[in-house]
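tokens incoming
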């Protein structure tokens, strides 16, 4: 690991507190959004109403699963911050570049581990 990489990834306590706060806000937003996905079937209607409901229910189901995975990842990263492990690749242990973490704070893998075999 070169020194530029290490310097790039160093976070001040204030910066980490800001990242943690943003992740906690994202966690809350995800929980609220997930509550809205339960679309009840129409009480009455024709086949078109039922088809529309079924289509929305399928979309909601996919969205709910996506948000469930993102919520779990967000909670995990908050735990990593609390353990002092934020910014370390969970696969190889190298430093995750600051730019990657700024773009995607939930990242737990460096790009080399996300895309093995690709030139860095």
């Amino acid at each position: 690991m070169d020194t530029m990489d290490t310097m790039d990834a160093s976070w001040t306590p204030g910066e980490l507190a800001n990242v943690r706060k943003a992740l906690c806000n994202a966690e809350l937003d995800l929980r609220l959004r997930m509550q809205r996905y339960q679309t009840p079937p129409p009480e009455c209607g024709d086949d078109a109403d039922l088809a529309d409901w079924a289509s929305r229910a399928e979309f909601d189901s996919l969205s709910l699963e996506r948000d469930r995975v993102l919520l779990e990842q967000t909670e995990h990263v908050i735990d990593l911050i609390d353990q002092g492990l934020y910014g370390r690749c969970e696969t190889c242990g190298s430093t995750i570049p600051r730019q990657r973490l700024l773009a995607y704070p939930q990242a737990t893998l460096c790009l080399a581990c996300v895309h093995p075999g690709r030139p860095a």
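note: Confidence is low (pLDDT under 50) at residues 1-8.
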